[in-house]
Amino acid sequence: MLKTRLAIGLTASALTAVFVSAMSAAPAPHSAVVHRIAPAPMPAGNPLKGLIAYSDPTNFPHSMEWFYLPVNAVHKGERTFDWSALEAKLNEVAGRGNQACFRFYYDYPQEPNGIPAYLLEPGKAQLQRRSYTDYGGGQSPDYNSDSPGSVRFRKSMQEFIAAFGAKYDGDPRIGFITVGLLGFWGEWHTYPHEDWTPSEDVMNIVLNAYVSAFHKTRLEVRYPAANSPRLPVGFHDDAFGEETLYEHDWCFAARLSKAKIADVWQRQPIGGEVMPPIQATLFPSGVGSTTGERWADCIKAVHPTWLICNQIKSYTGDAYTSAVQASTHMGYDFQVKTATFGDIGHGAPLKAAVDILNDGIAPFYYRWDVLVGAKRDGKVIKTWKTDWDITQIPAGGSKSFTLNETGHNLAAGTYTLAIKVVNPLHGGKPLLFSNQGQNADGWLDLGAFRAY
User: Fold this and answer.
1) Which pLDDT score is estimated for 102?
2) CA distance linking residue 203 with residue 158, whole number of Å
3) What integer pLDDT is reported at residue 341 of this predicted model?
4) What CATH number corresponds to the domain at position 72?
5) Under a CB-based contact definition with an 8 Å cutoff, are residues 323 and 312 in contact?
6) How far is CA 312 from CA 100, 279, 292, 322, in A?
7) For residues 39 and 435, what is the distance between their CA atoms, to the nearest angstrom?
């Protein structure tokens, strides 16, 4: 009996020694390491932000281009549409790696009107127009009356918007759509002919049609008029730097404040156009207006993400340098503060936490996909699609995102963990972080880890 107990004890001791030896030979798992990602200057030309010009090539760093189109370029008859003209413009802009911002109009001073021809055919249902000489002249449609022509006109607007949204909502070639259609230039006013101004009922017809038709692509309206303050739309200031602040009740910021939506930029985008007469003299001083409005004050008041400034095509010297800096500081600015992850064993989950700061003046308004990648010898060899929502990172704040992916199946070796925000536009400009380790292809290196 004693010999048996002794033999069992020796066997147990031997097994324990073998187990301990095996454990010592295996690589020990490493705890997570906090990688602090060094900051870098803001990259110029990031997508969906900054100063933009009318759609032509330009050497100024930019990511969007602007154009107008008359409605009759695509609306060819009752419930009949030919989108070739819009397709041509969108493809032209996308071919330069940019997204488009644009507006449809019916009435553009000095330009042929954009009213579909079938609405102007003689007869009871002919749409009536009023001629004017202001701003170079044009013809303003009768938006408001109960005449058969105006009733049919309003119906045609709804049909056009519904067809427009059905075909283009979420199209990655489009950055932002300004609602347009109504008033001179599609700017929702007929000044100085105030009695021609579209009524709130007509405005709401257009607003409701757009909101019903577009659920992905972001919309902007000229003024917080009619029901727009209660709808999921942004706004655009077409006299930025001249009538932006609070000197008059018609100024852009004053209108937003009166409508109790001065903070709308936290949810919806703000765009617009630097007032054309001041564009040439705005930079580098930051004051180009006759009203004395300063660039910095206007930016602080309304938090624009993008502004048309066609003069960027001509800036040189200090004006160019100052304009690039001003453009870069608009909209969002993402910077990774820390990334926490460690080494992983074969088949073990890849766990990571990434803290992203938005050091800009506005959120990012589109939920673009975010990828996590493993790189080896500078090449991405495996990616994981996350559920991270970068629209939730507030301006001036940060948000921590986590990843817990099982079964990585990486071969033993050393890798670099990286992240990338994916521009859905094929060939579109990559979104770059303000960090060291940011690569031109959009991948931001976060640090090394070991798979074993």
Assistant:
1) 98
2) 11
3) 96
4) 3.20.20
5) yes
6) 17, 8, 21, 11
7) 4
- Predicted confidence at residue 279, as pLDDT, reads 97
- Structure tokens, 363: 């959120």
Q: What's the Cα-to-Cα distance from 416 to each of 243, 352, 356, 374, 413, rounded to whole Å? A: 50, 13, 18, 6, 10
Length of the chain: 452
Domain that includes residue 360, residue range? 29-41+333-451
260 inside domain = yes
Asked if residue 18 is part of any domain, the answer here is no
Which CATH number is 418's domain given?
A: 2.70.50
Chunk the chain into consecutive blocks of 10 residues (it has 452) and report each block's average pLDDT, rounded to whole numbers.
36 37 37 95 97 93 98 97 98 98 98 96 96 96 97 98 98 98 96 96 98 98 97 97 95 98 98 97 91 95 98 97 98 98 88 97 98 96 96 98 86 96 97 98 97 92
Among residues 328, 360, 380, the one where a domain terminates is 328
Domain boundary among the residues 265, 294, 328 is at: 328
Nearest to 344 by CA among 444, 443, 448, 446: 448
Query: CB burial class (10 A; 0-12, 13-18, 19+) of residue 133?
Result: exposed
Q: What's the pTM? A: 0.91
Q: Evaluate whether residue 7 is within a structural domain.
A: no
Do residues 421 and 370 make contact, with C-beta atoms less than 8 angstroms apart?
yes
Say yes or no: 143 and 227 in one domain: yes
Q: What is the pLDDT of residue 253?
A: 98
- pLDDT for residue 15: 34
Q: Is residue 157 part of a domain?
A: yes
pLDDT of 245: 97
